[in-house]
Amino acid sequence: xxxxxxALVTNPIAYILTFILLGFILRKWKGIKxxxxxxxxxxxxxxxxxxxxxxxxxxxxxxxxxxxPEGKTYRYGIxxxxxxxxxxxxxxxxxxxxxxxxxxxxxxxx
Length: 110
What we know:
Elements: H1 2-10, H2 12-25, H3 30-47, H4 50-60, E1 84-87, E2 92-95, H5 101-109
């Protein structure tokens, strides 16, 4: 059941069909009906546009061309998701085994 729900949430067709269905359900209100059909059309064009997809793809995988200045020390850092999770039993953050213990100690102690 959960896999079906996650498949629906991540599928663009589900969003388009949701707006079409809402357009049918709310058809007695002309403005809302038009807005739902319009949103379905916009989403269809957005999700089915190859040039838009290619542009987003190139931007996503483009090299980062603004390196950090050398020798500058920062007070804080941002750890991207996927390396930690919340341990509800201990009521604290737990870091993944992917990270070395020195890296975890640096984050926790500073």
